[in-house]
Structure formats: C-alpha cells, structure tokens
Amino acid sequence: MERSGILCAGAWCVDHNFRIEHWPEEESLAKIITESFHGGCPGHNMSSALKRLGAPFPVEGMGLLGDDADGRFLLKICDDLGIERSALEIRPSVKTARTLAMTAIPTGKRTFFYSGGAHAAQTPDDFDFNRTAARIAHLGLPGVHEILDMPWKDEASGWIAVLRKARAAGLKTNMELVSLEPEIIRAVTLPLLPWLDTLICNDHEAGALASIETVKDGIADAGACRAAAEHLMQATNLSLLAVHFPKGAVAMTRDGTVIEHPSVNVPQAAVVGSNGAGDCFAAGMLFGHHEGWDLKQTVQLAHASSAASLRSASTTESVLPWKDCLALAGKWGWRT
C-alpha cells in the first residue's frame, strides 16, 4: 500500500482564550478584554493548520472527545475544514479536554490552565492505526496524559505501546512535546525517542532533552539550540529534527544537511496572540517533509506558517495557503 497523508492523533481540546488587561497578583483582579473559543492541542492544531496551508494530501484526526459542546465544536471544525474524522471517538463518560489560555495584553505572554478530561482516559487501546492509509502519525502530548504516561502492560509507558502500534501498521511517527519542567520532559520523552522518526520542538524542550541550557535570562541562545540539536541527532535515529525559537530555527536531517534560518520579522502591530505558533511551525515542517521539499524551503514555510498564525488569538485561524504564507513572509522579511 502506498501511504499518503498525515494522521493527527491523541490530544484534541478546546482553547477558551482570554485576553486580559494585565497578569494579576494573587487575590487581585484583572479585567477580561476579549474572549473566544477555538480548537486546540496537537491533534486539532496540526490538522487544521495543514488544511489551511492547503495540504494536497489527506489529513485525518484520531482521538477521544466527550459528548458535549466542546466535542461537537471540534467535530464541526473538522467538517468545515475537510479533516477526515471517523477515528475521533465520542465517549459520553468523559469530558472533552479544554485549556483556558490567558494572554496578558502588555506582554503578549500566555498562561494556561488545563483540564485533561478525555486525555486522562485515553489508553493505547484507543489507537487503531490499521484503519488509516496515512504516511505519518503525529502524536502529543507526553507528560499530561495520566494513563499514556505510565507503564502499560509490558511497555515502559503507554506512549511506547502507541508508537509501536503505529510503526507496526507502517506509519512514520512524529510527536509534539509540551514545555513542562525539564526533568519531567526528560522522564516522559527520552524513552520515546527510539520510536520517533521525526521531532519538531522548541528551544526549552530541546534543551531539556539534551541537558543543555538553551534559554538564558529568558532569551534563546541559537548556538546552544544547535548544540542541543546536534546532541539529539547523535543520540537517536531521527531522520529529521527541528528546533525553533523566537528568532529562528535549526533543522537537521540524517544525511547531514543542516539549515539555520531566522524567523519572520513580524511587525509588532500585527501580533494578536502566539497561541499555537509552535504547532503551526511544526505543520509547515511536516507539510514540506511529506512533500519532499528541500530542507531550506521546508524551514521557510514553517516560519511563514508560524508568523501568519500570530495574527489571531486562535491557534490556526489566520494561517494562509502555503504560497500566501511565503508571500507574507517575503513582505515582512526575515530577522537579521
């Protein structure tokens, strides 16, 4: 069977986004300026970003939702965008996962309050990869799934059981991480690396995995990010690795190709919110990787997709077709 497409499995949630006048001290008040509701988490964010980029290949969803308003909201997004969602299960006994995302207007920084819901109920038995003809399985988020993060039967974790099933079914595997404490990232993710074909992560996550300080005084060190990427490529069998940070990214392939590329010089006035920007970077990377683009063009699309996403409070709604994303990046220019 000739495989094509990307299956976005695992974590699906609804982001309840709030822009607040400032970040308050405890036992004080901050006014909510705007509020909105959008799809979130890697399953939704990757699939919707790929469809908005105009992916010329199938995009599928797989996961667990509750029989509630948030679950129905996610199903409608799939239907509106053309995401194949027959493997998104509705289970009345659980609630759809949700995140309250608070963005402080003066700084643009986000704080998340997460309710796991269906994520806490997922087990490896909920993943059936024999029903898809996709080429790549995109999964996430290790560290916030109560059952998948724990040992499962004869496996060290439920995630390994899931990744083993995906590999056995003939899929390549990619995983989205979450920026938890470094020791947690190492504990839940290092055992998974032998089961991944590609990894796209941020500066904090790469540094945690490589035990290298990549962020100093709140600023990413590009050289340290490259060192972390080199360490991970040497320690694994990944075919593709990308580490992104606010001012750029470094990407490497198993054949020795290395690309360091600055990010898009987005005008501050155009930035509405950064929620999902990392997911949109990953979507651009997997888009180009799936289509066999050269690494430089792939990284440029990743940056352009991420930049376009900054223009809305949602994770993906301002992402444009891929040619338009690249044109927008060309208009704004690259950081120097």
- CATH A-level architecture: 3-Layer(aba) Sandwich
Question: Regarding CATH, which class?
Answer: Alpha Beta
Q: What is the H/E string? A: EEEHEHEEEHEHEHEHEEHEEEHHH
Report the span from N to C terminus: 45 Å
Q: Which regions contain 5 or more consecutive residues with pLDDT less than 50?
A: none
Derived structural class: alpha/beta
Number of helices: 10
Radius of gyration: 19 Å
Q: What is the quaternary state of this protein? A: single chain
Q: Order of strands across the widest beta sheet?
A: 5-4-1-8-9-10-13-14-15
Largest sheet descriptor: 9 strands, mixed
Q: How many extended strands?
A: 15
CATH superfamily, called what? Ribokinase
**Average pLDDT value?**
95
Description of the molecule:
The protein is an alpha/beta fold and 336 residues long. The protein has one domain (6-332): UDP-N-acetylmuramoyl-L-alanine:D-glutamate ligase (3-Layer(aba) Sandwich), CATH 3.40.1190.20. The chain is built from ten helices and 15 strands. The protein has helices at 41-53, 69-81, 118-121, 158-168, 182-189, 203-210, 222-235, 277-291, 295-309, 322-332; strands at 6-10, 13-20, 32-40, 59-66, 84-91, 97-104, 110-115, 136-139, 172-175, 198-202, 215-216, 219-220, 240-245, 248-253, 258-262. The strands form three sheets. Strands 5-4-1-8-9-10-13-14-15 form a nine-stranded mixed sheet, with helices on both faces. It has a four-stranded mixed sheet with strand order 3-2-6-7. Helix 6 crosses helix 7. The longest helix has 15 residues, at 277-291. The model has no long low-confidence stretch (mean pLDDT 95).
